[in-house]
């Protein structure tokens, strides 16, 4: 797998595939310079950093104004998706084959968990 | 105050012109537009913050000038430069505040338009441009007035006069990276109610209250090659129309937001209107399967 | 991540390993078969905070994906992405990659490769996920199905433990010659002393308690045997998961109280005495799409035979592959507590019949279901994949059982 594994876009998602500059310490995805979060010291991808930093005033700089940089945009994206928007994914990478709409089927806490048997996958048992 | 003045001084001639005319129209690359507008937004924010204390200081200087004038008249004419200096400073400050007031931009700019540009930057191909029309003059500017109603009476008030304004302050269009074409307009219908009443002490007072109806109209034209469109009921406060074209399916979404002041709407309302179109999109070939 | 070895073989499974589950038993038997053929290799499985993420045991390197991703699908995708990175390192030296699920299969198959691939189909997520996630979106399920289809098409060989599953795959369009049946195995269980806390007379159910296992049918049947006051039911669950807790509640509701003994996560050494001393082992599998159409190879049935315990199981195609009604046990219509209760009662009254069945069970297990035999069949599959073998022959079925039914095409219609 070559290229940045992060996804660009807001209303729809697409592959980035930028030149890899490192890997996210949280999710392990390869990321380009644009998708590594400067605020995390370039150790996390923008998505993981947004997830970790979700505070009400997130994305604002020291003076209190919206910074409107990538960090802000990915934070806004995270909040927008958390509020229930499931973007369509138009990319072709197999690892990005499933989009937010798909993962939502597995979010519902009301559904009995998979036979999680000690946190494993729980399928394929004979 | 000094921060605001410094921020204004650092603006380029193009940015200053924009600040003065309060009008922006043309083709812009969203990233470049954010970069162009950010210093203006920063100045506007600092100016909003500084104006109230500056107004108070101006008032204080005039009072000080008056006091010093009386003191110098009674004590010694040689003290006369002091009230004159205070008066001069007061006048200079007043001129500055008035100028800043004149250059003040509608908060719609910082709180609605800029976030939308930042988001669209993410959804457009690098280097692609969008068409933008932005009017940042106050919604109750003379040229936006559409009429004044006849005075009427409501309980508690002697006279109420409604003035209506239409402010189509924001519009634009962009081709997004997925091939969709997005167009949007945001229009504020404002009613300024001038309400006159007599207070308990017998004084006549007039207050102006604002009501605002913001209409966000969004058209998302989805390429049929990429997307199918599923039928879905619209959310509350929204209208959605689907038009089937040869190559694209156009979704027209209209969302209305009522507020009781001139404060900007939540930028999320614009995102929601766009999302309302995309929510109906399905990957081509998978229509109806994602119920 | 840097691998310490240059593996020639990879065994990948989106399963936590080791655990007390059947899947884990399977991996413990099949992965070494692969590694002995290729002088070691890389085992890539799921882990958790208790298991080492990276370990070397002899010539086998084990990498466990242990990031606690909560969402099942995100976890599966992240597991695959991590495998992809391992393949970046190991892809050049690999000669064969064996995988158990599409989450591992897609990253293995989507890249340009020189290694041969074996897809081991025990179960398909597209069939089993709706049981655990009933609200799964049709579009998502369709995507899962498409990824399985991709794996079935792109893999060089497909192995499955059950002929029912083989027929299902063939009916789905997988060429019959590509699918090899490598049955599950069970090694003989020696006679064991009775556990000290074991009741005098008891039935046993052991294994996981997913909805398709039909433990509720067994509990309802057992409630009908209340007059046999000395009889107990022992449930040895592989994990005290949510469905397991639901089963405990049902037992309480049925007023079974102390008549049911629950044991959780017993290691094999503790489970075997319980099994070996049971009067009957019950496998009340439900007549679900998962069991009937997709098929399965219930290890609990095989292990019961190997322990010489007569089996009372649901009369379903995958069970009929293992048990012949009236020989090693009895097959009863699925999902019918009254029938199940009647059959159990009858067998309890016929000790000679049970003894005869126990003998037949041991004999059948020794004859047809030794792990050695399964491992040998699997090794045949690997050998046929070697470049020299591939040049001389196309993939050939390795299953030599008398009633191979699928050679000329699908036989099972899928609704």
Can you walk through the features of this model?
- Chain A has one domain (7-116).
- Chain A is built from three helices and five strands.
- Chain A has helices at residues 46-52, 70-82, 100-104, and strands at 7-8, 12-15, 22-23, 30-31, 88-89.
- Chain A is globular and about 30 Å long.
- Chain B is an alpha+beta fold and 291 residues long.
- Chain B has six helices and ten strands, in the order ααβαααββββββββαβ.
- Residues 286-291 of chain B have low confidence and may be disordered.
- By secondary structure, chain C is α/β, with parallel strands linked by helices.
- Chain C folds into two domains: 9-185 and 372-392, 3-Layer(aba) Sandwich (Rossmann fold); 201-368, Rossmann fold, CATH 3.40.50.2000.
- Chain C is 43% helix and 17% strand.
- Chain C has 16 helices and 14 strands.
- In chain C, strands 3-4-2-1-5-6-7-8 form an eight-stranded mixed beta sheet, with helices on both faces. Chain C has a six-stranded parallel beta sheet with strand order 11-10-9-12-13-14, with helices on both faces.
- Chain C is globular, with a radius of gyration of 22 Å.
- Chains in contact: A-B, A-C, B-C.
- Chains A and C meet through helix 3 of A and strand 1, helix 1, helix 2, helix 3 and helix 4 of C.
Whole-number radius of gyration of chain A? 16 Å
Instruction: Tell me the fraction of residues in β-strands of chain A, as a range.
Output: 5-15%
> How many extended strands of chain C?
14
Strand content of chain C: 15-25%
Structural class by SSE content of chain A: alpha+beta
| CATH class (first level) name of the largest domain in chain C | Alpha Beta
Low-confidence stretches of chain A: 56-64, 109-126
Q: SSE string of chain C, helix = H, strand = E?
A: EHEEEHEHEHHEHEEHEHEHEHHEHEHHHH
Number of domains of chain C: 2
Radius of gyration of chain C: 22 Å
Rough outline of chain C: globular
Q: Classify the secondary structure makeup of chain C into a structural class.
A: alpha/beta
Instruction: Provide mean pLDDT of chain C, rounded.
Output: 87
Main sheet strand line-up of chain C: 3-4-2-1-5-6-7-8
End-to-end separation of chain A in angstroms reads 33 Å
Output mean pLDDT of chain A.
71
Number of H/I helices of chain A: 3
Biggest interface: A-C, 34 and 64 residues
List the helices and strands and how they pair.
The complex is a heterotrimer of chains A (126), B (291) and C (415).
Chain A: E1 7-8, E2 12-15, E3 22-23, E4 30-31, H1 46-52, H2 70-82, E5 88-89, H3 100-104
Chain B: H1 2-9, H2 13-21, E1 23-28, H3 30-75, H4 81-103, H5 108-123, E2 130-135, E3 145-148, E4 159-175, E5 181-198, E6 204-223, E7 227-229, E8 238-244, E9 248-259, H6 267-278, E10 281-283
Antiparallel strand pairs in B: 1-2, 2-4, 3-4, 4-5, 5-6, 6-9, 7-10, 8-9
Helix pairs in contact in B: 1-3, 3-4, 3-5, 5-6
Chain C: E1 9-16, H1 22-37, E2 41-46, E3 54-57, E4 60-65, H2 72-90, E5 96-99, H3 102-110, E6 116-120, H4 125-132, H5 138-154, E7 157-160, H6 163-171, E8 179-181, E9 201-207, H7 215-223, E10 231-237, H8 242-253, E11 260-264, H9 268-276, E12 280-283, H10 289-294, H11 299-306, E13 311-314, H12 317-320, E14 329-332, H13 337-348, H14 351-368, H15 371-385, H16 387-392
Parallel strand pairs in C: 1-2, 1-5, 2-4, 5-6, 6-7, 7-8, 9-10, 9-12, 10-11, 12-13, 13-14
Antiparallel strand pairs in C: 3-4
């Amino acid at each position: 797998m070559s290229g940045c594994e992060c996804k660009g876009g807001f209303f729809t998602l697409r592959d980035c595939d930028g030149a890899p500059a490192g890997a996210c310490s949280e999710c392990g995805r390869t990321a380009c310079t644009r998708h590594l979060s400067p605020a995390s010291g370039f150790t996390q991808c923008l998505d993981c950093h947004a997830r970790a930093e979700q505070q009400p005033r997130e994305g604002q700089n020291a003076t209190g104004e919206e910074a409107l940089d990538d960090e802000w945009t990915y934070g806004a994206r995270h909040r927008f998706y958390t509020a229930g928007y499931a973007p369509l994914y138009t990319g072709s990478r197999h690892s990005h084959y499933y989009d937010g709409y798909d993962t939502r089927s597995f979010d519902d806490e009301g559904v009995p968990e998979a036979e999680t048997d000690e946190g494993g996958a729980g399928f394929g048992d004979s | 105050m000094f921060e605001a003045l410094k921020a204004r001084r650092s603006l380029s001639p193009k940015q200053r012109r924009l600040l003065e005319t309060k009008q922006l129209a043309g083709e812009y690359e969203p990233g470049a537009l954010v970069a162009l507008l950010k210093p203006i937004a920063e100045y506007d924010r600092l100016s909003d913050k500084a104006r109230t204390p500056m107004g108070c200081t101006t008032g204080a200087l005039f009072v000080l000038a008056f006091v010093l004038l009386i003191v110098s008249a009674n004590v010694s004419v040689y003290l006369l430069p002091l009230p004159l200096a205070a008066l001069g400073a007061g006048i200079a400050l007043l001129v500055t505040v008035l100028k800043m007031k004149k250059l003040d931009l509608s908060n719609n700019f910082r709180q609605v338009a800029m976030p939308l540009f930042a988001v669209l930057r993410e959804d457009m191909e690098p280097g692609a441009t969008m068409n933008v029309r932005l009017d940042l003059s106050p919604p109750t500017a003379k040229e936006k007035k559409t009429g004044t109603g006849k005075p009427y009476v409501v309980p508690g008030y002697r006279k109420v006069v409604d003035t209506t304004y239409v402010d189509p302050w924001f519009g634009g269009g962009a081709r997004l990276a997925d091939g969709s074409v997005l167009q949007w307009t945001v229009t504020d219908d404002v009613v300024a109610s001038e309400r006159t009443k007599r207070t308990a002490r017998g004084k006549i007072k007039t207050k102006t209250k604002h009501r605002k109806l913001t209409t966000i109209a969004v058209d998302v034209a989805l390429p049929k090659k990429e997307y199918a469109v599923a039928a879905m009921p619209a959310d509350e406060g929204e209208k959605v129309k689907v038009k089937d074209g040869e190559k694209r399916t156009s979704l027209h979404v209209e969302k209305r937001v009522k507020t009781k002041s001139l404060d900007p709407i939540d930028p999320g309302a614009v995102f929601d209107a766009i999302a309302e179109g995309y929510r109906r999109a399905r990957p081509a070939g998978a229509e109806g399967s994602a119920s | 991540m840097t691998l310490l070895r240059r593996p020639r073989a990879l065994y990948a499974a989106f399963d936590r390993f080791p655990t007390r589950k059947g899947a884990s038993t399977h991996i413990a038997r099949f992965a070494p078969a692969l590694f002995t053929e290729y002088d070691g290799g890389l085992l890539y499985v799921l882990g958790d905070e208790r298991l080492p993420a990276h370990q070397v045991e002899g010539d086998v390197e084990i990498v466990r994906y242990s990031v606690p991703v909560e969402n099942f699908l995100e976890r599966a995708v992240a597991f695959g992405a991590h495998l992809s990175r391992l393949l970046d390192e190991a892809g050049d030296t690999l000669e064969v990659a064996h995988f158990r699920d599409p989450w591992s299969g897609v990253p293995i198959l989507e890249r340009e490769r020189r290694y041969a691939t074996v897809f081991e189909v025990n179960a398909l997520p597209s069939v089993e996920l709706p049981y655990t996630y009933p609200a799964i979106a049709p579009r998502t399920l369709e995507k899962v199905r498409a990824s399985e289809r991709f794996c079935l098409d792109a893999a060089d060989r497909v192995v499955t433990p059950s002929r029912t599953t083989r027929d299902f795959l063939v009916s789905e369009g997988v060429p019959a010659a590509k699918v090899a049946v490598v049955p599950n195995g069970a090694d003989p269980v020696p006679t064991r002393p009775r556990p000290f806390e074991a009741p005098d007379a008891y039935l046993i159910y052991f294994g996981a308690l997913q909805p398709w296992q039909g433990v509720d049918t067994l509990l309802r049947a057992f409630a009908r045997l209340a007059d046999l006051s000395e009889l107990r039911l022992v449930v040895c669950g592989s994990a005290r998961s949510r469905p397991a807790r639901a089963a405990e509640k049902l037992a309480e509701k049925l007023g079974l109280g102390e008549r049911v003994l629950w044991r959780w996560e017993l290691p094999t050494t503790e489970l075997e005495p319980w099994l070996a001393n049971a009067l009957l082992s019950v496998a009340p599998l439900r007549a679900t799409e998962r069991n009937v159409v997709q098929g399965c190879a219930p290890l609990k049935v095989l292990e019961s035979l190997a322990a010489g315990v007569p089996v009372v199981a649901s009369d379903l195609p995958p069970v009929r592959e293992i048990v012949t009604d009236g020989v090693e046990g009895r097959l009863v219509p699925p999902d019918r507590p009254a029938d199940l209760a009647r059959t159990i009662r009858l067998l309890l009254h016929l000790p000679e019949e049970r003894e005869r069945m126990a003998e037949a069970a041991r004999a059948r297990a020794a004859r047809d279901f030794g792990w050695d035999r399964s491992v040998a069949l699997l090794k045949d599959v690997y050998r046929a994949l070697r470049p020299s073998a591939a040049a001389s022959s196309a993939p050939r079925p390795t299953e030599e059982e008398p009633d191979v039914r699928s050679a000329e095409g699908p036989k099972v219609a899928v609704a």
